[in-house]
Every structure is written in C-alpha cells, then in structure tokens.
Design brief:
With 293 residues, this protein is mainly beta. It contains five helices and 18 strands. The chain binds manganese (II) ion.
Length: 293
C-alpha cells in the first residue's frame, strides 16, 4: 500500500498502481489491499501486470503498512524454543494459546515506535506475519494455504512488565508491518525462511521459520478453530531468541528471506514514568509484576 491508501504491485523496483484498474477508492480506510480483499477481488489471478496501470518509481511514494487497520492482529506467544529458553518460560504457545493486539497498533514502514515508559524495558521482536486472504473458520492445517494471501515483515514491540500481553503489546506504533506482502505462490518454502533482526546496526536475532513450534498452517488452523478470520487479518508467528531492549534513537530492521526488509526508528520523546501512568494511583498494588514473555 502506498500514499493515502492506494494499492500497488511492486515490479522491478517500480510501483504499478492498481487502484483505478481494480475500481478501488484512492483512500479506503485501512488501505487498498484491505478493501480489495473485502471485495473478494481475485488478486491472486491478476497474473500479468495490467498494461493500463500507471507505473512510477517506488522512491517517489510513501510506502504504508500493507494492511493499515486489520480487523484483528493475532500474536503467537513463545513459539520458538530458543525464545522460550531466553525468557525462562515453562510453557509455550501450546499452553498459552494466542493473544490479540489492537489494530490501532499498526505502524507504517519508516515510522517511529513511541516508547511509553522511560523506566520499563521495551523490546523488539522480529516476526514473520501472515496476511489472511478470505473469511475462514475451522480451516484444517492442510487447507490453510487456501486462506493465506501471503507474508510480510513485522515487529511485535513489547513492554516487559506484569500486564497481560494484549496491554503490553498494543500501544500505538507497536506493530510495524511491511513494506510489501509477498504472495504465497512467490515463496519457495514459507516453512524455512531466514529471519534476522538488527537494532542500532547490531544483529540481535538470526532464526529460521523451520524452528516454529506451531508452523504457519498450524497457526491458521488453530486460530480459525477459535475465531472467524477475516480478510486482511494478520497473524504474527512469534519471535526467535535475541529479543532485547530498544532505546531512543535506535533503528530496528527486520529482514526475512524472500519477504523483504522493514525498518523503523525509536523515540522516547513521549515516554513517562511507569508509576504515573493513568489510574495507577487509585489501584492498590498486588505484588507480582515480574517480567513476562
Ligand atoms: Mn511476539
């Protein structure tokens, strides 16, 4: 997605603008891709690049998150063994199930992650994201490919504190997505993609999706056994070892083999002290509050 919400096809470094070709509004809420999926336009069958669609260099445009406002973002907690070990977790996704992130947490490529607290650790988690193509309920793992549009790069930014995951991971800007969706047919093997994440130019994460505890098809089957998946929904597949604190001025880059490279920056300009967050003063502390995955 680019500019105010137009849908483009990336072809040899140029954007082919499909917005008018597909009869989409130029400023659809959540973007042209979400609108096209909701209208059930046959994106996978586009095949040839339409000759009537205008082309221009990618650099002339503002690249946006592929799905600006998904109906939901699902997260996979503790879905790599090496991350389980580093977090000293006794359980995995098999016991924890999935969590939800607020759709309002999506951040465009090149955007700025806003740290909420200057005295609570906030970590990067580089992740492969699955974009759902169509409405799906009770999909068997062997049929999961039929409801998957493709993949994009994601960060699951996380405050390490005692709250539920949905709170700690749902701050605005906490789900950078993009820059493009690579459709399933373009990938040789989504079950074995290299994933790397750098913070401040230092390599922190270097994993492979073959080490997922629940692989992509299992995640789709499991998620759709719980809730109806809607077009444009996003499933974050979990993070390998190497998560760590991010700080004001950092750049974070997650790169996934065959999928792309996503970079965002970090700012603490809006950060406050954890203990002055709203409501805290009126609720007695009950202990706990340790660091969670
Ligand atoms: Mn995560």
């Amino acid at each position: 997605m680019f500019d105010e919400g137009r849908l483009g096809l990336l072809d040899a470094g140029e954007v082919v603008d499909l917005t008018d070709h597909l009869g989409l509004p130029p400023d659809a809420p959540g973007g042209g891709l979400l609108e096209a999926l909701r209208r059930r336009l046959p994106l996978a069958e586009l095949g040839e690049v339409p000759a009537d669609a205008p082309r221009s260099p990618m650099a002339d445009h503002r690249v946006r998150a592929p799905i600006g406002r998904p109906s939901k973002i699902l997260g996979a907690p503790v879905n790599y063994r090496d991350h389980q070990v580093e977090m000293d977790e006794q359980v995995t996704i098999a016991e924890l199930g999935l969590f939800l992130k607020a759709p309002s947490s999506v951040l465009d490529p090149g955007g700025t992650v806003r740290l909420p607290y200057h005295d609570k650790r906030t970590d990067q988690e580089g992740e492969l994201a699955v974009v759902i193509a169509r409405t799906a309920r009770h999909v068997a793992a062997e049929d999961a490919d039929e409801v998957v549009l493709g993949f994009t790069c994601a960060l699951d930014i996380t405050v390490r504190a005692g709250e539920d995951r949905s709170t700690r991971k749902s701050f605005d800007t906490f789900t950078p997505l993009g820059p493009v969706v690579v459709t399933l047919d373009e990938l040789a093997d989504p079950d074995d993609l290299g994933l790397r994440c750098e913070v401040g130019g230092q390599l922190r994460q270097d994993g492979r999706t073959r080490d997922l505890i629940y692989d992509v098809r299992t995640l789709v089957a499991y998620a759709s056994s719980v809730m109806t998946l809607e077009p444009g929904d996003v499933i974050l597949t979990g993070t390998p070892a190497g998560v760590g604190p991010i700080a004001d001025g950092d750049d974070i880059t997650v790169s996934i083999e065959g999928v792309g490279e996503l970079t965002v920056s970090v700012s603490a300009a809006d950060a406050i002290a954890y203990d002055i967050r709203p409501s805290r003063a009126t609720v007695p502390a009950t202990g706990g509050g340790g660091v969670q995955a």
